[in-house]
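Course assignment 3, question 2. Fill in each field.
Student: A.L.
Task: Predict the tertiary structure for the chain below.
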Amino acid sequence: MVTVLLALWVGARYGSLALGAISGIGLAVLVFCFNLKPGDPPTDVIYIIIAAVTCAGMLQASGGMDWMIQIAERLLRKHPDRITFLAPFTTFFLTVLVGTGHVVYTLMPIICDIALKKGIRPERPCGIASIASQIGITCSPIAAAVVAFSTISAQFGFHVTNVQIIMVTIPACVLGILMASLASYHRGLDLDKDPEFQAKIKDPEKRAYIYGSNATTLDKKISKESKRAVYIFLAALVLILVISIPQMFGVNILPHWNSIQAVDGAGDVVLSGRIQITAAQLAKAGVVLSGYTEVVQKYLTMNVVIQIIMLTATALMIIVSKAKPKAAVQGAVWQNGMVAVVAIYGIAWMSNTYFDNYLPQMEQMLGGIVGQYPWTIAIAFFLVSVLINSQGAVVVAMLPLAYSLHIEGWVLLGVLPSVYGYFFIPNYPSDIATVNFDRSGTTVIGKYLLNHSFMMPGMIHVVTATICGYAISALFHFVFHLY
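Answer field:
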């Protein structure tokens, strides 16, 4: 455990690609020094992330994201007095649509500018808006955390679609944002009553710096091709949802094929008195042997469907919207997404290796409390997320352990909002960028590191959303029997 925690701590200090790469060192130590059997890398989840990030990156390269940001800015500027409520919901739904929180960087200086021009303390909307941009990850049908939850849950017998997941997380997170926004509405001193801010603007140069900029995207011309890219992207999301909905009612409309699998409990098979193989090996070779293997229908899985749809949408953007692949690769969305892939790859592989080899000890250590109070797994999710700057990585690393502790799937779905805890230590790019965008200086990290502008709204949201998510999931499970 010390090796795992040390690798995460060192990786977090370096950030970016280092988090996944240094986890590789931890994996090497576990395998070569402690002789642990390597776990399985989370390839299914990684493939989906690559497909979704490539599609979102192409949307950015086409100029489609600029149009989405413009629409959001028009809404915010139309109601500047409600910026503390509208800003977080705007960043939240942008993340839900695109599947990554990195899309909101362009919007942050606009939020700050609107607040300053209206005389509202920028810390109020900026703090919760940065939090909300990350909250949306557990509410997006193409985000890594949602896809990972669906894929891993199916492996443990809890079959839940992306639509069913967001039916729980969206209302829970919306309530969490609402509570955090209410708490932020009168946060800190008004600018006209803040002596520190008033002292700043007495200096003409500082006043010009604070009020002089007019951040906006409204002057940018959006081409027809860019708008087409948005339509293609939204159509892909709708198609994913449409395919997922029938599965909620036990109807699978996806293609299927005959496949051979080993019969449960089948042991070794002896052929000709000499050759000994397993039933699983027979099934893999396509050999049907009565009593050991059986022919079953295998349906196309949703993780493959999402990959196909995202790649197809990417290709259509290139052909129809004239998006440049080179520009997509150079864009912030694609680059940050690939960093997330490396982080999930390294962290999850290292964590799976540790948990797979020490599962009995983990069950003995955690089994008592989570057996009596299953919701307490949310605390473990949150604490791991404080160290790992990726909600998808937390799901991939911790969900198999949670199922191994015999926690029911509906409980884990209910507490899914608790995988967002990396605001606790303010080293995430969106938080740091928000501090820099706030020219008034009211959005701060804090002298003692933890007394920063994101702590209060972040904690209020996580607690509220986790409690609400647990209640909603219980309602769907016990009353409506959706899963």
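Instructor remarks: The CA atoms of residues 171 and 469 lie 8 Å apart. The chain is about 65% helix and 5% strand.
Grade: pending
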